[in-house]
Amino acid sequence: MDPGDAAWLQALRADDEGAWARLRAEVCTGLRRWLRAQADAGAAPDSLVDDATQETLLTVRAKLDAFRGDSRLTTWVYRIAVNALLGELRRRRWQRQRSLEGDEDVRAWPLLDAGPDPERAAAQRELWATVRRLLDEALTPHQRAILVAHVFERRPLDVVAAEAGLSRDAAYKVIHDARRKLRAALLARGLAPEDVRRVLAG
Amino acid sequence: MAEAREPRGMRRADLAAFLESVYASQERELLCSEFAEALPAYVDWVAAGRVEPADPRFAAVAHHARQCPECGEACEALLAIVRSGPPPASNG
Fold this sequence. Notes:
The complex is a heterodimer. Chain A is an all-alpha fold. Chain A has two domains: 3-97, RNA polymerase sigma factor, region 2, helix turn helix motif (Rna Polymerase Sigma Factor, Chain: A), CATH 1.10.1740.10; 105-200, Arc Repressor Mutant, subunit A, CATH 1.10.10. Chain A has helices spanning 3-13, 17-36, 47-63, 73-100, 118-137, 141-152, 157-164, 168-188, 193-201. Chain A starts with a helix and ends with a helix. By secondary structure, chain B is an all-alpha fold. In chain B, α3 packs across α4.
């Protein structure tokens, strides 16, 4: 472990006020700098960083003994901070997006931007139709619902997991299993990755 | 005045990205919590520009970052913050 990190860690464990103030300043500065560089920064109130910083410090306080020193202390803390900030930003993005979109079933969705060449466009629509058919045929209703909500409708994974009564890991595993089934189904129909790339390229 | 609702549909680039993730899926992949635990060491390694020796977990971390867009976004954000901060030598 970096000697500076070791000393800082010791001070944090001893509940040194200066050490915690320095950590708060580091987190707040880093998050604010990152957020300012984002396209949708204007939609995010200043309190977002303050709240994420506060949540981060509480988490760090609870998990300080879990820091093993295989990264810099600040990187370990920032990972927690990024998780807190992005989680809230995603929830806000999803709420804005949801208010602007209809609720049509994904299986009724058209391909919005098929290519200009009529033959290629027909092949692209046929591929999308095949994928939609496989969502029904290859997946269980549970797998289909989780996959569609997160991957196609772009609902945050934490939201999807909470709605389904699952942990985030369990929801991700459902999506992983669904991908494996779709992969096998596509390959069984003779659709190799290079074929799909060729169809979707132009 | 209320904003108009956007048409629902699939865009070609999104379909291509989805199918890439389907074909790239591996039998065993990291879960999000395993990724989160390994991420700080991976980001320090990438930020330092080191090539070898790599922790064997790092290939799995990079794969999960590609397969899970939210974790990929977290990885990019963490890397940006670490790169914009002071170097390790001044962090004492």
